[in-house]
Queue: 2 jobs
Job 1
Amino acid sequence: MASASELQSLRRCAEELAKAAAGRREAERAGRLAARLQSGRFLLAVVGEFNRGKSTLVNALVGEAVLPTGVLPLTAVATELAFGEPSTKVVFLDGRTEETTRDRLAQFVTESGNPKNRLGVARVQLSGEWPLLRSGAVLVDTPGLASLYDHNSAAGRKALLDADGAIVVLSADDPMSAEERRLLRLLGERCSPTFLVLGKADHLSPEELAAVRRFVIDAIGEPLRGPNRVFAVDARSAGRDSAAGIEFADLLAALSRFVDDELLAALTSSARRELARLGTSLSEGLTIERAARQRGGEELAALVERFEAEVGAQRRGLEEDRHLLARDLSLLRDEVSNRLTRFVESTSPRYAAALQPKSWARSRRELEEELQHRIQASVEEAFERCGSELRPVVEQEWRRAAERFRARVQSRVDSARSAAAHLFEVPLPTLEIADLAEQPASFSFLFVRPEGMIEPLSRAGLSLLPARAAERRMLLRARRQLISEFDKHAGRMRWDIVQRLEAARAALERSSSAELQASIAAIAEGADRARRWQEKDGERREREERLGEGLEQLAESLVSLREEAGNDPANDEWRTCSSRPAPPPEVPGSTLPAVGAGGDTLR
C-alpha cells in the first residue's frame, strides 16, 4: 500500500530535480509535480473535444450548477473544483489572484466573456463542500480539444499534461475522433487512471447505444492497453437511469470508490512515472553535452553544422514521406468511391423492385407510412451490410499505408540519432517510435442511422387520381426515393470515410513528426549547452562539471522509478500498466531520498 510518507519522499525527489536542473526543460515540469505533491491534490481532468458536455458533467458530479454551460464551445480557461469553504478565485498568468463571485465566473472562463483569454487568466479555482472531492481529488474542467479556437485547444492540452488522471467525455452521436484517439494514446502512455464517459446517450435508441458502446470499447482497447468500462450518461438528467442505459449513478459510484480508496496509490504511481520520464530525458541530453565538451570550439561548430545538415536532409525526406502517404490515401479514396458506386448500382434496383406494401387495402396515409418504413429498413439493412464489408478493406489498406509511412519515419529518426552518435562518438540507444498499434491515428468507422433520414413522400395530386392509379404512383415514387436515398447515403458514407482517413493521416503525421523533432531537439540542446560551456572561464566550467556529475547520478536514479511504477499493483485496477515496488537506489553524494516499502526514507 502506498503511504503519505512515500508520497512526500517523491515530492522531495521532484524538488531536488527542479533545483538541480534549473535552466533545463525538465526543471519546470519537476517544479509543477513537486507543487502538486506538496498540496496532496490529485488533479482529475475532465477532457474531450469541444461541445461534448464536459461542464454539464462536472456540474452533475458535484451536484450543483456552478459552471456555465451551453450549446456553443464555452470553456476557454481551465477551472478547478476542490473541497473546502465556498469560494471563487481567479489566478492570472502574471501571478495575481482575485476573489470573485460565482455569478461573475463566465466573465473569466468562457470564450464569449473572455475572448482569446485577453484577461490573461491562468485558471479559476472554485471550492465548495462537495462530497466527491472530500478526499483530495480536484476536478478540472478543461477547454475543448480540437476547438475552433487554437488557444482553447492549447489550454486543454496543458491542463491534461498537468493532471494525474482523466475523465474522457466522448459523444454518443459522434464517437471517437482522431483527436480523441490521440488523447487516449497519451493517457495510455502516462498510465493515468482513466474513466470513459459516453455523453448524450439519450440521443440513441438502446440498440444504437449498444452498437456505439461496442465500437468505443474496441477503439479504446489498444490506446489504453486493456478493456475499459464505458459509462453511458445523460448529465442533463443526472442520476436518472433509463432503459437506454443511462449510468450516471454507476459513474458517480466508481469515482467515489476511486477517490476514497485508491487516490493515494494512484498519485504515488503517477509521480514515479513522471519522475522516470524526466530522468530519461535528462540523461540523454547530458550524454550529448558531455561528449560535445571534449571538442574544441571550431571542431564542435563543424560537428553541429554537419549534424544540422543531416537533420535538414531528414526533414526534407519527411516531406517526401508525407507526399507518399497522401498518394496512398488518394488511391484508397478512389477505391472506396468505386466500391460504393458499384454497391449502389447493383443493390438499389433489387431493393426497389422488392418494395411492396403487405396489403393495399388501407388508407393512403397508412400505405405511405408503410412505404416510408420499408425504405428506411432497406437503407439501414443495405448500408449496415455495406459498412461491414467495406470497413475491413479500408482498415487493411490504411494500415498498410500507415505502416509504410511509420517505417519511413523510423528510418529518419534512426538516421538522425546515428549521425549524432557517430559525430559525437557516444552510444545512443535506438529510439523506437510508436508502432501502429499504439498510434493515435487508427482509422475507425461506424454507420449509425441518423434521425429523420427519410423525407416524406409527396401526396400532392394523388387525391385526384383513381385508387389504383394513385397506388401505382405512390409505389413508383417510393422506388425512386429509395434509389435516391441509396445515392445520398453512399455519398454520406464516402464523405465520412474520407474525413476519417484525413483525420487519421493528419494525426499520424503529427505524432511521427513530433517524435523526430523531439529527438533532434534533445541532441541539439546538448550540443548548444556544450558550446556555451566552452565560452566560460575555468572555475565556472569546473562548477558546471560537478553539477553535471550530480545530475547524471540523479537522472540514473530517476529512470529506475519507471520499472517500479510499472509494477505498482494500483495499475492493475486501471489496466493501463501492471507487487510491491522495490526501493529506488540511493544517489551517492546527493540528498535524494530513497523510498522504502513502508514509505520511510532509507538514510
Note: Residues 297-532 form one domain.
Job 2
Amino acid sequence: MDIYNIAASLDEYAKKAPYQAAIYFPVGRDKDNRAEYAALSFKQLSELSDQYAHGFADYGIQKGERTLVMIRPSIDFIAVVFALMKIGAVPILIDPGMGRKSFLQCVAETEPVNMIGIPAAHILRFFIRKPFATVKRQVTVGKRLFWGGKELSELKSSKRSKFKVEKTLTTDEAAIAFTSGSTGIPKGVVYEQGMFRAQVDLLKNAIGIKEGDIDLPGLYIFALFNPALGVTTVMPDMDATNPTKLNPAYLVEAIETFGVTHSVGSPTIWKIVGKYCEEKNLTLNSMQKILMMGAPVPPSLIGRYEKIMPNGEVFTPFGATEAMPLTLIDGKEILGEIADLSDKGAGMCVGRALPGIDIRVIKKDDRPIAKWNDALELPQGEIGEIVVKGAVVTREYLHRPEETANAKIKESDDIWHRMGDIGYFDEAGRLWFCGRKAHIVETDVETLYPVQVEALFNRIAGVHRTALVTKGKKAILVVEMQKDVENIFKKEFTEKAQAIIEENSLFESVSEVLFLKDFPVDLRHNAKIKREVIEGMVG
C-alpha cells in the first residue's frame, strides 16, 4: 500500500523555501487602526510543529488516537494540527458554533482519546462529562485551572531535533471533520490520508494553486491545505462563526498589504466585500482567483467582480464536506449564455468534473441503494440526484451506519456518494445544480426545484434572497429584502413577483408571497438557508 502523510509536506517546503512566510495572523490594531500581525516562516512553523509533536509524543499521544482540537483560529491551531498529523494522530475538527446539543453529540460520536482546547472547552468537559468520557489526556491552550492534564506551553518541547514524521498509509485516518448540519444534525466525515493527497493534487494541478501564492481563507478549514501547497496564509481579521458581521475594510486591507493572490469563501463574504469596493471605487489588483462556494452564487455577483478584480477570475467549484472539490467553472463562461439561462430558471451551472472525478445523475430515490448499477443513471437533460466517485470521496460517516447506507453506493472497491443534491447535465457536459433533494417542493400540480424557481425572483430590485418552501401541497415564496431598501421596494417586488408567477405558469403552485426580515442560515457559510425553520415560521 502507498505511504503518505500530508504533514510531511510542511517539512518539505521548510527545506525548499525556509524563509517564505507560512502564516500571518492578526493580533490587534495600532493607534491608527492598522492591523498588526504575528508571522512565522515555513522554517519556523515546521520547527514549532516539531516541538509540539515531541511534547505530545512524550505525553503519550500516539498514532491513530482521535484528538479533539478546540482552539480558536491562530498560529498555534495550525501548528498543533500538523504536530498531531506528524505523530499520526487524528485531529477532530468541530465547528463550535453549531449549538451545544449538536456539538456534544458530535464529541460523543468521535470518542476522542485526547483533547486539546482553550479553558472554556475544558470547563464544558468538566461539567458535562458524559460526551467526553473517552478522553484520557487533556491539554489546555492557556491557563489550566481546576482540571487535570497539561498546558500547551508545558508540552512545547525544548528538543531541537526534527520530529520523524510517522509513515501512514493512504487508507489510514487523517482527520475527522463535520458537515455543516444545514439539513440535520452534523455528521462526522472520516478523511483518509489518500483523500488529502488527492485534494492537494487537484488544488495544485486542476485549480492552479501555485507555490508562493498568498491565500486569504474565508473558510478557515482551507488554511490547513496551504502548508502542503507551499502557500502563504493570511488569516482574515473576522469572526469565522459570523461572516455577516465582517468589516470588509479589514479584508481589503489584508489583500492590499500582502498582495493576496487567491481566496476561498462563501458568497456572503464576497457580497459584503464587493459592495464595499464599489462604494469606495477600489480594485483588488493582486487577486488572481476567488473561489466562491458553500451556496448558489448568482451570476450578478460574479459580474460585479469583473471590475473589482481586473487581473483575476471568479470560480464556483462544487462539492461538500464528504467530497470536494468536484467541478469547476470560471466566471467568463458563466457570464455568457449561462447567466441568462440561470436567470430564466435553468438552475446554477457548476461546470465540468475535475480530473479523476466521475459524476452521474440518477433517478431520485429516498431509499438506500446497496450496489451500483448503470441502469440507475438518467439520460442527459433529465433532473435527478447527483452522485460522485473519485479519490476525494469519503467512504463513511462516523458511527452513523444508517446515514452511511443512505448516502453511499458500493461498486466493487469504490464508493459512490449521494450528494443529496438535485441536478442535470446539459449538452456540453456541464452539471447544473437545482437544489437539495430535501428541499424539493411537491405541489398538487407539479414538482418545483428551489434554485430554479428562486432565480426568477432574485433579480428583482431590492431582493437579498428568496426561499421556496412548502405549505401543505402549495408552495410559498418567502422574501428577504436588502436592509437599506426593504421598505422602498416591497410593493414593487410584489407586483413584479405576481407577473413572474403568471409568466411561468406558477399561479397554481405558488399560493403566497411573504416577507421575512432575516433568513435563518447555517453558521459555517452564513449562506445556506434553513428552509425547514422558515417553514415552521410561516406554516
Note: The CA atoms of residues 247 and 268 lie 12 Å apart.
